[in-house]
Amino acid sequence: MAQLKVTLVRSVIGRPQKQREIVKGLGLGRVHSSVIVPDNVAMRGAIRKINHLVDVELAK
Prior knowledge:
Layout: E1 3-8, H1 17-26, E2 34-38, H2 41-49, E3 54-58
Antiparallel strand pairs: 1-2, 1-3
């Protein structure tokens, strides 16, 4: 199964609470932190809600 590397590139300061919860739920903490997540429909939906805050690439 493919995996995605998600990196937080913008701060969540001043963002709506729902977006903060999504970032925390993905396991991202500080700016420039990264996590590897499975490439499935649920993760893509979460990433889509915060796509302006993160950078996504295929994990190796």
